[in-house]
Input
Amino acid sequence: MFDIIAFDADDTLWQNESLYSETQARLAKVLAPYLDGVDVDARLYETESRNIPYFGYGIKSFTLSMIETAIALTEGRVTSADIQQIIDFAKAMIDTPTQLLDGVVETVVQVAATHTLMLITKGDLLDQQRKLDRSGLAEHFSHIEIVAEKTEETYRTILLHYKVDAARFLMVGNSLKSDVLPVVAIGGQAVYIPHAMTWEHERVDPADIQHARYFEMAHISELPGLVEKLMQNQEI
Amino acid sequence: MFDIIAFDADDTLWQNESLYSETQARLAKVLAPYLDGVDVDARLYETESRNIPYFGYGIKSFTLSMIETAIALTEGRVTSADIQQIIDFAKAMIDTPTQLLDGVVETVVQVAATHTLMLITKGDLLDQQRKLDRSGLAEHFSHIEIVAEKTEETYRTILLHYKVDAARFLMVGNSLKSDVLPVVAIGGQAVYIPHAMTWEHERVDPADIQHARYFEMAHISELPGLVEKLMQNQEI
Output
C-alpha cells in the first residue's frame, strides 16, 4: 500500500512545544522586574515571525528572538547578565533529554515491521539529529530528512528523490500546516494527530482544511490499525 | 570513472570566511571602547569552540558566540544597544549576496556535462540553501547534502544512501579536515583547493596529512583537466 510512511518528529514523536513554552515562561520571569504587565509572549511571537526569514526554526533562532525581544521591551535596560541567562536557557533546552510521547515506541516498531519509515522534520540540523540520536528510534527510520520548511515543493522534492508516487506516501504529524495540507495537496495521504500544544505559527485557517481529505486520530497508537485496514483495502 | 563528483560550498564555490572575518573586525570595533588591547578574535574563537557542541556551525551559532564573548570580555558592561548591533551584523551577513569564486561557474558547467554533481556542505540548513539558490548554480547539482559535521561516518552514510562505491567518489573542497582527509580515509578520492582564508577550526596537524593521498590544485579551473585525465586513466 505505502512505499514510505513518514513521521514528523517534534510533538509527533517527542515533546517539543512544551520546552519552548516553559522557556518563554522563564523569559517572562526574567523580564518581569523591568516591565509593567506587558504581554511578553505576544511580542516574542512578533519578533519570531519577523525573524523566521532570516533565522528559520529551532532553538538558536528562538534564542536570538528572545534576546531581541528583551532589548526592545525593556528599551535597552535589560542587563547583559540577563541576556547571558537567556543564552543559558538555550543551552538548557539543548541539554534536555528527548521525551518520547506515549505509545510512540510500540507504534514505530510495529509500523516499521511492514513499511519503510522516514523522518521528515524542520528546524535545526544539529538539534534534530541530537534528539533523534537520544530518542533510541533512529534504527527504525531508513531515511531522515531535515528540511528548512515543509511546503508542497519540499514534499515533491523528497518524493522525486526517493522515486515514490505521492499516492503511495503517507505522512503522519501534528501540524495541519506542515504535515497534512501540503501532502494532501500533492496527492499524498496524511494522518493528523493533534497535540495539546500547537505553536501559533503552525495554526491554519479553518477554511483551508474544509475540503482537504486526511485521517485524524487522537493517539498515535491507532496508526497500525489504520495502516492495516488501508493495506487490506477496507472501508475506513 | 566517478559516479559522483561532490563539491564543498563555503570557500570552494563562494566566499564565506571573509564575511566572518569582516564581521569579527566589526565586533572588535564595537568592543574597543570597553577594552584595553584585548585580543577579541582569540577569545571569540575560544567561545565558538566551546559552543560548537551546542550550536553547531553557521551564522546563528557565530552570533550567539559573539554575544557571549562581548558580555564576558566587558564583564557585563556591554550595552544592550551594542548587543542588538551584533544581532544586526548577523542579519547583514545573511543578506550579503553570494559571491562566487573566480572560475567556479565555468568549472561546474564543464564537469556537470559528464558527471553527476553533489553539493556537500555543513552549517545552517536555511542559510546554505539560501546561498545555493542565490548562486545560480543549483540546477547543476543533482543532490544537495547539508550536514551537521563532515566526518568519515558522514561520508560513509552518504555513499551508502546513494549506493556509490567510495572508489568512484571524488570530493572537491578547501578544507583538509572536512573535505579531504575523511574522504581519503574511507577509500574515496579528494581534491584539495586551498583558500587564502581558513578558519582556525578547520586547520589540521601536518602529521595527519603526511600519508594521505589526494590531489591539490591552486585553482578550481584545473579540475576539468584532472577529471579528464583520470577518466582516460592516464598518469597524473
